[in-house]
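[09:14] KT: can someone run the structure on this one? pasting the chain below
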Amino acid sequence: MLSRRAWVVQWGRVLGAGALAAPVLSLGGCGFQLRQAPQFAFRTLVAPLGDGSPLRRELRTALSSAGVAVLDGLPTPPAAPADVVLDILADQREKSVVGSTAAGQVREFQLRQRFRFRLRTPNGKELIADSEILLQRDISYSETIALSKAEEEAELYRDMQTDVVQQVLRRLAALRSL
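[09:31] RB: done, structure tokens below
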């Protein structure tokens, strides 16, 4: 037979486990699902995704890992034609001053990542019109910690780059038919 204290402790554990399980079980009933890998309406994509830009490398990797064959140029006629062509119109990083002191010392920068693209069939049918993804982040600046601010700037650009790639993948996955 359990003592009164052991009985209270045991029931406390049961009630605590039930309180934790209730929200988890209710999520299943509301239709909640974790984000799945994107499903594309195409299997092969032609894109000038050279290794010149880290964003382009990350986009190529993301597409390849999602099961899309990424070709560098238009295939020759005997080869199987590509399903779609991704035209990259702009891939730019920008940095501008948004705050300074009365003495002219910079105190804040704005970082921008701009990516413009369109998607079409090899025959020229436009599937996604010219689209631009523009992300911006503000970063404070101090001359006394310039090295750490440079590292923070690089980290912000990497974060924006990953966000741009995810947005492009979602837009490509939203295409249901060619």
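[09:33] KT: thanks! The domain at 39-173 is CATH 3.30.160.150 (Double Stranded RNA Binding Domain).
[09:34] RB: yep, looked fine to me
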